[in-house]
Design brief:
338 residues; mainly beta
């Protein structure tokens, strides 16, 4: 505490009854500081009062606040779209750095932010809804600094449909590429980003969910009107399942749409062994002569029939006006004609 010395102290203005003192920052004082003002009263004969004292807190600096991270909750996606705007598929966290010597609060839309343990000057706020998030740092002098971000939350999956195939009865019997077309839509969401397809061979598991790393291929055309070319020669014979999935910008995935496509590029094969293994004679006597069967009575002929897409085997008797003859499936590609 300084001792009173009339030679070094400054006389106050106003009157002795109601004095006033202009307080200015000391040389070199900037930003936040503490200054102490001392007051002394002296009467006409040199008696000096007890010193009066007041501490003045000087705060001319504005707080500093900056966004350090915007993170989606586990399993969700958040993406910047420019000029402080973001799109998210679900809940998210915003981290900010806020500094000021006299900082008193950090808020988001006037709700307190949470100090992040172990991270100096870092605060976190959580969001779950679309809207503007005003992040504000306030100091003791009432000065504030703000940052703002706008987030659109889209939790809804897009949809996809196959337009050109009405059912599972499509047959391809040419090697020419076959075009499948369809559409996708995200309603009021953030928009479809890509449409993917995958062709599954019969007997292999059909995917129940979309995984981008699991052999899916991006469809052509546009996301609104996509197209896929199926190459029968590449895919090979048999029943195929075409799977379609639409993915929006924040990785919401549509239910997988499926259609069966049947590829058949070759004719069936029917063979009859030219020996006794080709028939059951029973009580009859059978002789094969140059591919012609001579029989003393009824017998059963064995026919081998094969095709990837074999549907049925039929037989007619040309000697009886092409009358149908019963055919029995004996299994393993063998059919019996009585």
């Amino acid at each position: 505490v300084p001792a009173f010395n009339k030679a070094t102290w400054t006389e106050a203005g106003g009157t002795t009854a109601l004095w006033e003192v202009p307080v200015t920052l000391a040389d070199g004082v900037q930003g936040e500081a503490v200054q102490t003002v001392y007051i002394a009263a002296e009467d006409k004969v040199g008696n000096v009062s007890v010193l009066g004292k007041r501490v003045l807190n000087v705060d001319t600096a504005i707080p500093v606040i900056s966004i350090t991270a915007i993170e989606a909750e586990s399993g969700k996606t958040i993406l910047p779209t420019g000029n402080g705007t973001y799109i998210s598929s679900g809940d998210f966290n915003i981290k900010v750095s806020a500094t000021d010597a006299n900082l008193v609060s950090v808020t988001s839309n006037d709700e307190p932010a949470v100090k992040v343990p172990g991270e100096a000057d870092v605060y976190k706020v959580s969001g779950s809804e679309s809207g503007s998030y005003i992040l504000k740092a306030t100091d003791k002098a009432g000065k504030t600094a703000e940052q703002r971000i706008d987030v659109t939350v889209d939790r809804t999956a897009p949809s996809a449909s196959i337009v050109s195939l009405a059912n599972d009865e499509t047959w391809l019997n040419s090697t020419d590429a076959f075009k499948v077309t369809g559409s996708s839509d995200d309603g009021t969401g953030v928009g479809v980003e890509k449409v993917y397809y995958k062709v599954i061979n019969k007997g292999n598991p059909v995917p129940s969910e979309f995984l981008e790393t699991d052999g899916w291929t991006e469809a052509g055309g546009t996301t609104a009107l996509w197209e896929v070319e199926v190459d029968p020669e590449t895919e090979g014979e048999g029943v195929k399942t075409l799977c379609i999935a639409a993915v929006d910008r924040v990785k919401n995935v549509s239910p997988i749409v499926k259609r069966a496509i049947n590829v058949d590029l070759s004719d069936p094969e029917v063979t009859i062994a030219n020996d006794e293994t080709s028939y059951d004679a029973g009580t009859s006597k059978v002789v094969i002569s140059n591919g012609t069967y001579l029989s003393s009575g009824a017998f059963t002929l064995k026919v081998n029939a094969s095709d990837t897409n074999l549907d049925k085997v039929v037989c007619v008797n040309t000697a009886a006006s092409n009358a149908s003859v019963a055919v029995t499936d004996a299994g393993s590609g063998v059919y019996k004609i009585n």
